[in-house]
Amino acid sequence: MIGIVLDNISRLDLNLLVTLDVLLDELNVTKAAKRLNLSQPSVSVQLAKLRDYFNDPLLVSNSRGMTPTLKAEQLRQPMKEAIAHLHEVVLPTAEFDPERAKQRWRIAAYDYGEATVMLPLLPALRAQAPLSELSIVQLPPTQIYEKAERGEIDLAINVVSNSHLNLHHRTLFSDQYVLAARKGHRLLNGPVSLDIFCQLEHVMVSPDGDGFWGETDEVLKALGLKRNVVLSVPHFLFLKAILETTDLVAMLPSRIAMMSDLIQIVSVPIQVPDFTISMLWHERVHRDPAHQWLRKQILLAVT
Questions:
Q1: Ranges for the HTH lysR-type domain (predicted)?
Q2: What is the mean pLDDT of the chain?
Q3: All domains of the chain, ordered by start, with CATH?
């Protein structure tokens, strides 16, 4: 049955529907031809094709011109709506108007991305797009592509990995790990040697709160050393509070460490590789004006 319907539709030139729409408005072939910028014989030929397709006269002559048949009356409104929908699909997309748009964006970010990207973005977003809504969700990096492909997120803030190779991405900034501790820490009054660094009680962030190994540990392992990690937490916000109120220390991204007046940054004799934060998005939204506007605002917020 579906095959029969599709076959019937494939026989119809969609331009004929535009002609029929104008004919039903004008009820006159000459006037319709003028509106369509066609000759009267051309419109007559198209009307004949329409009659053949619908197996109905559609328009019949009377003393005042032409009158639509019952079939034509039944077609009139659905056809107008169909033509309007086609125009929406094929015409160029209108420019995005943030002030009037009722847009809902869904962005995947852990609390690091929330603090360093989303928080700086919010003032401009609320001022320029007051009717918009923003939902921030946490996703494992391995799920970003799948969720973006299915339209469940619009964009992600993360480090680019092998699982993201099929996504568009734009670098936002690079950050470095620094040794952070509360100001006045009793063991950090002077230079920190590797021995002291390893003896300090460390806290680290692991998304599931159950990881005790990270980039710093890889660097130390290459030197034949091991630090003393005593606590693993899932969020930087909690870690920052721990550093402010205890003698625990952490290798913390510098942008997070500098957010607290109660935390000091201490020089250490090891270099942990920097990391780069990017925004990632799928091809399905790459050319969308609203999405392009959002990406521009994010770039402006972090530069």
A1: 12-69
A2: 89
A3: 2-90 (1.10.10.10), 104-174+277-302 (3.40.190.10), 177-273 (3.40.190.10)
